[in-house]
Amino acid sequence: MPTFRFRMLPVLFAALAAGSVSACRSSATEESAVRRGDQDFAEARYDAALAEYRLAVRQGADDARTLSRVAHTYAMMGRVDQVGTFYDQAVAKDSTVADLAVADLMRLARESLKSGDPFAMASAVEDALKLRPGVGVGELALPLARHYYKNGQYGRALPFYLKAMANQPADSTPDVVFEVGQVYDQIGDCQHALVFFERFRKMVRPNQRGEVDWHIGTCAFDLSKEVRARTPVTPEDLDQALRMVNRTLELGEPRNIQAQAWFEKGEILSDLGQCQEAMDAYRQVRFSDASGSLADRAQDRFDEIRFGQGLDSLSNGGCR
Asked: Is 292 helix (H, G, I), strand (E, B) or coil?
């Protein structure tokens, strides 16, 4: 048995030595690939440099420095998607790489904007913000906002619009103000949308107000109904709802909901106990919707108040 063990020792040592030599050769090969890549990069042969760096990674050199070389080379080649992927891996291994990553990504974003590729611009900024959430986007704010706006990504568009407006006087950019109003409208925030729509309306000439009047009228009417639907509804709520529906009626837009707006006004005034004013509002429904079912409902409400029906409600402050 001892003789067998002694005989196996040379074989074991040989295997260990071979493994050590293999590891050294592997490490040397990786270093060689990186050195060749650095030489190619220095001579602006980016395709060749990338091939060498990728070879080093495949051979096991997946440290932050090598991964950063790959990402930076992709950045020099303008290949945005790969830049973000490899910088993510590099930063995961060494957070100090984030500065170089953000610098490359923001440079790519600006170059993409100049070349007319808003998707690449947005992708580069998104990757930069993942690595450094607070990074400033500067002059890219408005192009980013409009890119997301055009693609229906209103939630993403809004913060960039607000950043853009903070960097320049709002009264000099009515188109931006209008777009912000539309973004708020699209995300279901009529209250903020109205602020921007009304601001835009003051900026432009009367003959440019047709579209914004439609938006204001629609939003004001929707907000009026929303406020009146609160439980419990307070007199202050009803006053707010009345202001909103009055704005819809003042503008006369949208035309197809004017009868509904008059009916809504009658309901609000009735709830406030302003019975004569409520009757006047219900009467207007017939002029806006003479043959519709809403006119019949308005007539019923009018008659309830006129002929004293619903007196129990009247004693509680309402007209019905």
From this structure: coil
C-beta contacts of 150-155 below 8 A and 24+ residues apart = 152/186, 154/183, 154/186, 154/187, 155/187
pLDDT band, residue 195 (cuts 50/70/90): very high
The pair of structure tokens assigned to 115 is: 């070349």
* Mean pLDDT confidence for 94-114: 96
Query: Cis omega before residue 235 (within 30°)?
Result: no
Q: Which sign, positive or negative, has the C-alpha torsion 245, 249, 254, 257?
A: positive
96: amino acid identity, one letter: T
Tokens of 54: 């990728």
Domain ranges of the chain: 26-132
Location of structure tokens 């949208």: 254
CA-closest candidate to residue 245, choices 231, 227, 233, 270:
227
Q: Which amino acid is at 123?
A: S
pLDDT reported for residue 17:
35
Check if the beta carbon of residue 310 is closer than 8 Å to that of residue 273. no
State the alpha helices, DSSP H only, in the chain. Answer: 2-42, 46-58, 64-76, 80-93, 98-114, 118-131, 141-150, 154-166, 174-186, 190-203, 210-228, 235-251, 258-271, 275-288, 293-306, 311-315
Nearest-angstrom CA–CA distance, 73 and 78: 9
Q: How far apart are CA 236 and CA 212, in angstroms?
A: 27
**Cα–Cα distance, 246 to 262 (Å, whole number):** 9
Q: What is the CATH code of the structural domain delimited by 26-132? A: 1.25.40.10
Distance CA 239, CA 166 (A): 33
d(CA 274, CA 316): 12
* pLDDT 10s digits, 221-261: 999 999 999 999 999 999 999 999 999 999 999 999 999 99
Query: Cα 18–24–30 angle (5° rounding)?
Result: 135
What CA–CA distance (Å, rounded) separates 78 from 212?
41
